[in-house]
Each structure stands twice: as structure tokens, then as C-alpha cells.
Amino acid sequence: MTRPAGPGLLAALLGAVAAGPLLLYGLSATSDLIIRDLGINAAQFGLLATACFACATVGNASLGRLADAHSDRTLMIVVFALAAVALGVAALAGGFAVLLVAAGLSGLAQSFPNGVTNRILLQRVPAGQRIGWAGIKQSGVQASQLVASLAFPVLAVWVGWRGASVFGMVLVLALMVLALRALAAVDPLEQEVEHEVGAARAAAPPGRRPVTRARQPGVVWALAAFGFLNGLGVQATNVYIPLFAVRELDFSLVAGGATAAVAGAVGVTARIGWGRVMARGVSAPALLLVLALLALAGAGAFFAADAAGSPALLWTAVALHGASALGVSVVLMAALLRSISAASMASASGIVSAGMFGGFTLGPLMMGALISTAGGFEAGWAAVAGAYIACAGLAAFLAARRR
């Protein structure tokens, strides 16, 4: 017997968004340990994030139309299964090359969640709840960051970072079972299915969804561009916060992981909060401009913390980062929910996600290269600030165009 969309379905959406990033956040939280264990340097460690996000970029860019043609259940299984395999491979890693493969699989797991969860929102959740739910389910990424940043360092002290990956794999498989049960319990809204896909769905082969060939509107590409610029700063910061705290400010391994955990906790709150702001009708360009300016202030605080050796400034920077740059994703996804139909939602979400993951790919690579130079972390934080300046410029242009 099916029932209306409720907390179970919302938890399923949250888990689908959270599963893929779990490995990379866990590796980041234990970065100092992994670097010493594998005998690599900071720039090489950054290649793990590069491999992860490069695979996610390619997957989002190339598999969106394929995702439009497959069921929600199939895509949810793919998301959780790939995330679990990635964590399992990491647990078996005997060297850096195997860990790179695990990171790449983690990236592929992030090729589908935004598309399938956005489509589920359109087809199974009443219109009045969608934007608010988008904010909550997009907070899954930061929930993953929070859990991994707290749990992986503690587990690593007990069973090593590979053992921590095993615990992560078990968690993801358990989430998959719960998510599939929740999905099966909620039917699509009949009126939404009729309105969005109608005759196209009826003409599709049994068990498959129609593949739309329509060109995406300009708003999709503008959102993708903003996602790319913001993504540069987001993952350049996320991947290296723990290492920065440990190496530059003499934090312990667990305390270093706590910096990323705090960013994740603030990010969870921010995504839910900014989702509610969007639900009240605030325009996406105006909100993106606010977030870009706050993120720029955060980058400035990281630079100042480095120059002054100040833990207080570091915590200020972490809070600003979590409240701003980590909140952008929900605004981008909410903008899509306002303007894209369910029939092409997976492919549109794939394009915007590909933009974000493109930035995620280059950000850690850029940061790793810069902190290995004489400029160190100060050069890296300056580059992050430059990315957010570009974000502010693009958001201001979009806001002017909207007016």
C-alpha cells in the first residue's frame, strides 16, 4: 500500500545525495595520516579529489539523457551501489593508484543523485513542498561531510583509515535498503505525471522513460557556469581545510577533521535555510550574489588566519564558508525546479551538476599546486577569493538581466 510523500521519502533523497561524497570527505578528514602512510605529497593527495570530480563531471555531462530514460529505482540502486563499491575499493587500497580508482568510482556515484532526486521531487512531492525539500535533500552533501569528518578520524585511530572505509561501506548499503523501501511506498502524483510526460511516457518501451532531445534553455547554462566558479572555491577549501589546520595551525588529526565537520554542520543548516528563502519567492540571481559576497569574506578570513596564525580567524572562516559557498547548490537546484519539466530534469540537472563538478575537479588541483609553491596556503586562499569575485560578477550580471 502506498502513501503520500513524507519523512521516509525525504530521508531517502537526503541519503542519495549524501552517499557519493562520503569517501572523499573521509579521506580529506584523515589526509595527514594518508599522506604519511602512502608516502605522497599534498599535490598528489589533491589528485584524489581531481579523479573523483573529473569522473563526476564526465558522468553528469554524458549520462543525463540516459538517466532521463531509466526509472527512479534503477538510478537509486546505481547511486548507492557505486558509492559502496568505492568505499570497498578504498578499504583494499595497497597503494595510491588503487585509491585513485576508488576516488573515481566515488565520482561516478555522484553522476545521478541531483537528477533523480529532482525528478522525484517533481513527480512525487506536492508543489508547495518541493523547494523546501530541495534545500533539505541538498544538505545531504554537507551531512556527509559532517559525518565523515567526525567519524573517519575517530575510526582511523581505532582501525586505520582503511577500516573506516569499511564502516562507510556498510552504512551506505544500509541506506540503500532504507531508500528503496521509502521510494516503493510513494507513488508518483498522477496529475504531475500526466502534465509532465503524458504521451511521451506512453510511447516509451515498457520499464523505460522517454529520452527528450529538446535543447536546454539558457538558464541551465548560466547556472552551470556559476556552479563551476563556485565549485572551484568550494572544493579547494573543503579538501584542504583539515590539512591547513594540522600543518599551519598545529591542530591534532581529530581537531583538524573537526574543522571540516563544522563546515559541514553549518552547510546543512545553510542549505535548509537558503531553501526556505527560495521557497518564499526570492530570485535565484539575487541570492547567488549574496552568497558569493559572503564566500568572498570567508576566503579573506582564511587568508587572514594563515597570515596571523589565528585559530579564531580559522573558525570564523569555516563558518562563513559553510554558510555561503556550501549553500549554493540548493539555489541552483531550486532554480531548475522552477523552470525545467520532469521529462528533461535529469539531463538539465546533469548539465548544472557537470558545471559544479568541473569546478570541484580543478579546485583541489589548483590548491594542491599552489600550496606546494613558495606562496603556500596564502597563495591558495588568494586564488579561492578570485573564484568568488568571478561568482559575484556573474550573479550581478544575471540579476541585472532579470531586472
Automatic annotation (TrEMBL):
Pfam family, one: MFS_1
Origin species: Zhihengliuella salsuginis
The entry's keywords: Membrane, Transmembrane, Transmembrane helix
Residue ranges of every copy of the Major facilitator superfamily (MFS) profile domain listed in the record: 8-403
Primary location class: membrane
InterPro entries for this protein: MFS, MFS_dom, MFS_trans_sf, Sugar_transport-like
Name used for this protein in its record: Major facilitator superfamily (MFS) profile domain-containing protein
Membrane topology listed for this record: Multi-pass membrane protein
Keyword Membrane found: yes
Positions in coiled-coil regions: none
Location of this chain's protein in the cell: Cell membrane
Gene3D superfamilies reported in the protein's UniProt record: MFS general substrate transporter like domains
Transmembrane region(s): 43-63, 75-103, 159-180, 218-241, 253-274, 286-307, 313-337, 349-373, 379-400
